[in-house]
Backbone:
């Protein structure tokens, strides 16, 4: 990857317009030249000599036609709009505008050649006086695209067209009905088939990015990604089996529109989690040796995956007692009780007669659920939540089922899960009423089922608080978009594809060189950022949370901006040649002749028409200041700035 | 680099209280000075500690090796296929002056540091590791005293080494706690703790937090040329930065961008004003990082810092497989050459006695070779300390008996440490200028151990 790519030369001096080959309707005058396409090597550029920015009204401005590869010129005709200003019959082809009027002027030059051919320049804008370019016309926010920002890894132009066609509810219905057909494990197996080499760690990440980038079931993928940030495993060490990672993601996909109770079960028994939080090979207590069961999974399951530290109301706010104090959901003794429940589970085929071989097994199966070893399961009573005590002597499976049922049925789970999913999809600061509405759906999907994630997701996205454009315009609305999603958006909207049909997006967790975020590479079980994080200053003063800001450090915003800038310079990204994602910028360069058109199109696809007027003006001005012969440069400039523009980075 | 549950919770709590305890949030000098409530021991000189963290668990058993003929024979028989031959060790022989004539050798790759050791400016600290309290083999076998949790887990052990003590109530890194004591004396507080390896637990204190800089020294945006540039993208970027936003999150994002530019401008200025270094650094990952650290130290006067901690890293030490010999040889060469160059740069800058570099790692590796010809996770490890102030050419601590089921073995050749990380860090803290009465701020559990100063720093 060429980090030190060529930079913009400090052009400055002249506003330029360029390129020929635009047929014109018949001109007036003493001849009616025929127009035909010139040879590609010829071009005419209209420049305003010595002009850098607005000129003083009343001053004189000399226009000049600069030529490349053109000969046989009879005369150069200078125009403003349709009005002819004057003709120059000899090189250098110039016209002086005397006493330029205040305002915005658009000039062109036409070169009339022998043989009745005409070369025309693109318009050259000259501003006289303190005239800023026309402010962009107001444009209404597009709720369909807003939905796509909330529910996909970034809309493509095709996605935009589709949501316009089927509407918000139609789109959601379609997505919720899509079968779960993507398999990360199959991707890993396919790597071996395609390359002849066994799959390695990076292929697990490729598998994840592959569906983020190219999958049709975008909403399921978004929810699975969100779940991976709630029920966290990480390979940051790195010490996970790549097959474990792939299998884990398959499990999340399987449950994204399923039931949270099933998710808890499958996550608890998945060997990736067993390894990450030490439930794998967790042995029953042995008082004689001073050994007690490992508490890691018990603690994080409660604190981070299901109920949290404080008792919650349906609306997600903490319950207060008569003295106005919050109420803890559990204490250390409860953790110890659950720790005992989570004993006696390991890979199939371990030697249960040997302590060491049970705890550090040779036989590994990273794909199938852990199985129970009754001899290693804590036999006594287990004190759990809210005074519930499991009787002694239950099987490991029964203890597990009882414990997970108890957690699942706790009043906290609905608001806990709902609030977090809302924060990942729609807004960092849902109103308590919004949380209530969604948590109610968690508690009862309408047909008596608790934990129905499909109903929860639908409730989140269709809620008035997600769809109301007045609310969206408020200064506290929405959220900082996750870096992973901003990256996929850029790649999707530029139809980036690799030669081998795969990708080579691997470790992007470095804040200096990457996104500061990468799937399954969180720094800890606490994910990349906390749902409670608030940024000191105005956000904290307003008592708001801003989770994603936790990773947007001074280092990360620079690193991230440079990362995107490099991706745009190289027109793609990848750690590996065959899997290098090459962008297709042609739909965007096609618009780049007209800065306003380009910016409008970017506004729709990247920001649901919610870029501010000033941002749109800045982008248009930036684009316009770059030569029209450099359309790729115009698009690159626009996208580079867009990636760091706050009204793109923040979704409303 | 690894944020544990504990350090994360600390930061989240501090955030809620309004303190900027997470790394790299835009800083305000006045607020930072006000936030430091720790007693500061006034200092007039400059000192820096540089932590070189070897991620994955460096096999200390092949880093510091007994060299005497019979000594080596015992080593060779116990290590099996991993043993390094005595003839290969001749060039890296080290003769500590305090081991009663017992000779050792560093890994054959470490010729440069062996020379520094011979010149008295490097020391070996033997069999050091996380401990809750001192523990004998008998106590270990009987499980009669508490031991650190999750002893052979990478993330837990990286965390325990960087936190510097085993205590669930302590969530800050010992480098950060160390700098906290002197924080208010650093004029540019944000330069107090610098990492070239991203976020680290080690540098996260209460006031002091790690600021990450790029090892290749790039401080700024690739596409933003300068405040004066008329390049369209730069102009556009400036407009974005200077346009006020009504939306709170948008404005906060802009503020972070602006803060970043300000900080970078600061560092750029300081580094450019500092004299360029003649010392050549190896062009390796670690070499680049230490070269950046050296440039930062060269800029200390411009930055007005008196006490700094740095964090640099090298990974790849988790050598379970049969390629351990080649892998470790390459890595230790990188370590030796880079630290050696850094030491030379400190001499060039005239701060050799004021900068101390030391290694840390997840754990040692177990002593006998495993079935694949590599080794698995161990515990007590041997580390190196390098610098002009080091009372060098010595081996501190107690070299373990290299015997499986021997008096130092917790099982499978994983040595029970005889020196704790607390003592390791406390020794460096005392040299750094922390008074005896302030020492518990840095090493809160030092009282559990016999000695608070191992003596390896003069």
Residues:
């Amino acid at each position: 990857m060429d980090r030190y790519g060529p930079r913009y030369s400090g052009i400055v001096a002249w506003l330029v317009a360029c390129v020929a080959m635009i047929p014109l309707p018949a001109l007036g005058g003493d001849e009616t030249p025929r127009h035909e396409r010139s040879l590609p090597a010829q071009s005419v550029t209209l420049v305003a000599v010595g002009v850098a920015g607005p000129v003083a009204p009343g001053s004189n401005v000399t226009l000049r036609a600069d030529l490349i590869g053109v000969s046989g010129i009879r005369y150069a005709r200078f125009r403003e709009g349709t009005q002819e200003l004057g003709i120059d019959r000899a090189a250098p082809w110039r016209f002086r505008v005397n006493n330029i009027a205040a305002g915005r002027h658009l000039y062109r030059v036409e070169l009339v050649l022998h043989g009745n051919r005409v070369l025309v320049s693109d318009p050259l804008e000259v501003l006289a006086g303190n005239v800023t370019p026309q402010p962009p016309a107001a444009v209404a926010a597009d709720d369909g695209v807003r939905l796509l920002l909330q529910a996909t890894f970034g809309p493509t132009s095709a996605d935009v067209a589709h949501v316009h066609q089927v509407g918000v509810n139609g789109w959601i219905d379609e997505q919720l009905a899509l079968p779960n057909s993507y398999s990360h494990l199959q991707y890993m197996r396919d790597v071996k088939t395609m390359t002849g080499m066994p799959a390695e760690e990076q292929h697990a990440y490729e598998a994840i990015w592959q569906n983020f980038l190219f999958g049709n079931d975008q909403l399921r993928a978004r929810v699975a990604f969100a779940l991976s940030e709630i029920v966290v495993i990480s390979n940051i060490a790195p010490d996970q089996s790549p097959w474990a990672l792939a299998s884990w993601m398959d499990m999340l996909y399987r449950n994204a529109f399923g039931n949270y109770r099933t998710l808890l079960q499958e996550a608890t028994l998945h060997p990736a989690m067993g390894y990450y939080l030490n439930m794998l090979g967790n042995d029953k207590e042995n008082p004689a040796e001073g050994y007690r069961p490992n508490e890691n999974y018990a603690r994080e399951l409660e604190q981070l995956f299901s109920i949290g530290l404080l008792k919650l109301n349906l609306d997600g706010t903490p319950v207060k007692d008569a003295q106005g104090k919050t109420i803890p959901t559990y204490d250390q003794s409860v953790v110890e009780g659950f720790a005992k429940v989570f004993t006696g589970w390991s890979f199939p085929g371990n030697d249960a007669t040997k302590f060491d071989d049970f705890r550090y097994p040779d036989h590994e199966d990273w794909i199938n659920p852990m199985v129970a070893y009754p001899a290693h399961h804590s036999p006594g009573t287990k004190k759990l939540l809210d005074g519930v005590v499991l009787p002694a002597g239950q099987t490991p499976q029964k203890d597990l089922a009882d414990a997970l049922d108890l957690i699942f049925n706790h009043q906290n789970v609905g608001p806990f899960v709902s609030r977090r999913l809302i924060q990942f999809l729609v807004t960092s600061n849902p109103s308590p009423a919004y949380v209530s509405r969604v948590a109610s759906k968690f508690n009862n999907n309408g047909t008596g089922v608790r934990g129905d994630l499909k109903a929860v997701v639908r409730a989140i996205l269709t809620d008035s608080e997600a769809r109301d454009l007045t609310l969206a315009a408020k200064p506290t609305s929405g959220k900082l978009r996750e870096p992973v999603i901003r990256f996929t958006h850029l790649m999707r909207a530029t139809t980036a594809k690799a030669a081998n049909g795969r990708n080579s997006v691997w470790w992007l967790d470095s804040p200096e060189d990457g996104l500061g975020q990468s799937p399954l590479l969180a720094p800890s079980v606490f994910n990349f950022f906390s749902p409670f994080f608030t940024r000191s200053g105005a956000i904290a003063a307003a008592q708001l949370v801003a989770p994603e800001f936790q990773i947007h450090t001074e280092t990360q915003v620079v690193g991230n901006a440079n990362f995107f800038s490099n991706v745009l310079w190289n027109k793609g990204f990848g750690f590996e040649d065959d899997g290098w994602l090459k962008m297709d910028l042609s739909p965007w360069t096609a618009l780049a002749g007209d800065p306003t058109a380009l910016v409008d199109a970017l506004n729709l696809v990247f920001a649901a028409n919610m870029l501010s007027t000033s941002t749109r003006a800045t982008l248009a001005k930036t684009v316009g200041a770059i030569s029209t012969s450099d359309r790729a440069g115009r698009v690159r400039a626009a996208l580079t700035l867009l990636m760091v523009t706050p009204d793109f980075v923040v979704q409303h | 680099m690894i944020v544990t549950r504990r350090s994360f919770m600390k930061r989240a709590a501090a955030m809620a209280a309004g303190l900027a305890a997470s790394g790299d949030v835009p800083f305000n000098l006045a607020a930072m000075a006000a936030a430091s409530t720790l007693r500061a021991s006034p200092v007039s000189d400059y000192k820096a500690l540089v932590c070189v963290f070897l991620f994955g668990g460096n096999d200390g058993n092949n880093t510091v090796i007994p060299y005497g003929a019979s000594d080596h024979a015992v080593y060779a028989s116990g290590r099996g296929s991993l043993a390094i031959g005595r003839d290969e060790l001749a060039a890296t022989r080290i003769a500590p002056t305090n081991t009663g004539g017992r000779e050792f050798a560093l890994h054959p790759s470490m010729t440069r540091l062996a020379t520094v050791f011979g010149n008295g400016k490097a020391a070996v600290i033997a069999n050091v590791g996380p401990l809750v309290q001192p523990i004998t083999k008998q106590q270990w076998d009987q499980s009669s005293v508490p031991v650190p949790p999750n002893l052979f887990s990478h993330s837990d052990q990286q965390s325990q080494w960087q936190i510097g003590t085993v205590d669930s109530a302590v969530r800050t890194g010992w480098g950060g706690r160390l700098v906290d004591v002197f924080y208010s004396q650093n004029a540019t507080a944000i330069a107090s703790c610098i990492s070239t390896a991203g976020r680290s637990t080690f540098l996260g204190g209460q006031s002091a937090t790690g600021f990450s800089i790029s090892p290749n020294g790039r401080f700024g945006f690739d596409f933003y040329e300068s405040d004066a540039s008329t390049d369209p993208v730069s102009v556009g970027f400036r407009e974005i930065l200077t346009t006020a936003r009504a939306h709170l999150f948008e404005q906060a994002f802009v503020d972070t961008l602006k803060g970043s530019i300000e900080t970078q401008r600061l560092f750029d200025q300081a580094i450019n004003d500092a004299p360029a270094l003649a010392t050549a650094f190896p062009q390796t990952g670690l070499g680049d990082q230490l070269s950046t650290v050296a440039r930062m130290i060269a800029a200390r006067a411009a930055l007005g810092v008196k006490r700094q901690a740095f964090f640099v890293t090298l990974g790849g030490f988790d050598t379970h497989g049969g390629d351990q010999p080649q892998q470790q040889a390459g890595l230790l060469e990188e370590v030796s050459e880079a630290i050696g160059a850094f030491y030379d740069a400190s001499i060039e800058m005239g701060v050799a006695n004021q900068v101390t570099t030391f290694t840390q790692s997840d754990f040692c590796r177990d002593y006998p070779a495993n079935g694949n010809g590599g080794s698995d996770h161990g515990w007590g490890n041997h580390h190196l300390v390098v610098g002009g102030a080091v009372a060098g050419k010595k081996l501190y601590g107690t070299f373990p008996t290299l015997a499986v089921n021997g008096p130092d073995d917790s099982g499978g050749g994983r040595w029970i440490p005889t020196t704790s990380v607390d003592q390791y860090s406390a020794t460096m803290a005392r040299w750094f200028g922390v008074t005896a009465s302030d020492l518990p701020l840095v090493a809160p559990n030092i009282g559990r151990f016999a000695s608070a100063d191992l003596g390896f720093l003069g």
Observations:
- Chain A touches chain B through 80 residues (CB under 8 Å).
- Residues 1-39 of chain A have pLDDT under 50 and may be disordered.
